[in-house]
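REQUEST
  id: r-88c1
  op: predict_structure
  target: DUF1876 domain-containing protein
  payload:
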Amino acid sequence: MTRPVSSRPPSVKEWRLNLYLSEHDPETTARIVLDTGDNILESRAEAHRSPQDREVPEIGDELAAGRALVAMGHLLMRAAQGDIKAMGVPEEPAPAGLWEPQE
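RESPONSE
  id: r-88c1
  status: 200
  body:
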């Protein structure tokens, strides 16, 4: 079976993400370093244990890591938007929220 000349073989990329957790009770800090091969992005986030809560380090790890991953997602989206803008592609209007009336 032949494929059309215009089709490209799929490309595979590997991005390396390192997540570092540091606990200094009652605070847990997560630091993420993402190496895309072209760029390195870094995000940080924290979780704070309330003094009345039991010490469960896994919860602080999960909260701090989750928050740092969300922050990394925002960094990646911002980077993509900057790249799109640099290419001269016009911005599309943001979709209306679910609570806003549709026109």
